[in-house]
Amino acid sequence: MIKADKMIAKEQIASVLHNRFGDVFEQRRKRPAETLPTSIAEVDELLNGFPRGAITEIHGAASSGQTSLLLATLAFASTHEETCALVDCSDTFDVSSAAKAHVNFDRLLWVRCSDNLERSFKAVDLLLHGGGFGLVALNLGDVSAKLARRVVSSWWFRFRRTIENTSTALIVITPVACIRSCAALVLELKREAAVWPSTLSLVSENGNGSFTASREHLTPHLSLVAASPPARTYSPLSHSYFIQGLRIQVNRERPVQWSTAVIRFNTHHPYLDDIR
Predict the structure, then answer these.
(1) CA-CA distances (angstroms) from residue 108 to 7, 74, 125?
(2) How many angstroms from the chain centroid is the CA of residue 84?
(3) Cβ–Cβ under 8 Å, residues 249 and 187
């Protein structure tokens, strides 16, 4: 009798909470893992694209290739019927470069924030809660490293919770790693040929853009390492060639299953060849 009364009381409480707060306390169903391609074959072969319903952080110093990677992803998404949004904290988005990368501006919402960090985060929050975007990008690349580290973690937790189990991919460009555990995928971009130890490394063979991958078992990291590109006769350097000289280190929340493979960079990239 006591057990039956407890069951009735529990159902009554659940009913009251449901009537007042809706489904806010119900556990969300997990969606199958989905990704958004970057259109860069070598990166997509390793990562299968950027995860949807999660945060991807891309960090690195100036001229490390963040803009190239972002433009390639924006171009692919916007030309494949994805609605995209770019929250530009420092108003550094170059429209002419985006046009040459074939970004479809009819499917891109550009939010300029005039170096106002708080306004940038509020804009992202509104976009994520509004829904309907396949890709939302927050560009903090020109924010100082000190200021980026001081961003309160509650923003990142809020963003992660908002897009969980949705089809939106949130990409955040930062000067240094600062999102920590809230990021499902972290890419560190560097223009160098050195290989970090205790990572999965893709090592250049004879400087021809050929890469061999091998797995070490100490950390769930991946590294993509390219030697400095050989001297060429053209000038100036295009984004498609610039990508060939990048080192990309990838960190996931979970260990990545990996086997030996050979990756080769294409000489040109379809979305970046026209950028000079």
Answers:
(1) 52, 8, 17
(2) 13
(3) yes
* Closest alpha carbon to 160 in 135, 179, 134: 179
Structure tokens at 227: 């030697």
Please name the amino acid found at residue 119: R
ω into 236 cis (within 30 of 0): yes
Range 154-160 average pLDDT: 96
The average pLDDT across 237-252 equals 50
Indicate the angle between helix axes 153-163 and 117-130, nearest 10 degrees.
20
CA distance 267 to 64: 19
If one compares 32 and 147, the residue with the highest pLDDT of the two is 147
For residue 264, the cross-strand partners are 210
For residue 50 the two structure tokens come to 């950027």
Beta bridge partners of 212: 203, 262
Residues contacting residue 13 through CB under 8 Å, at least 6 positions apart:
none
Q: Is 40 in a helix, a strand, or coil?
A: coil
0.90 cut: is pTM over it?
no
Closest CA to 251 of 51, 69, 62: 51
3-state SS, 101-160, equals CCCCHHHEEEEECCCCHHHHHHHHHHHHHHCCCCEEEEECCCCCHHHHHCCCHHHHHHHH
- In the chain, what are the domains? 35-264 (3.40.50.300)
DSSP 3-state assignment of 190? Answer: strand
| CA distances, 207 to each of 59, 227, 228 (Å) | 25, 6, 8
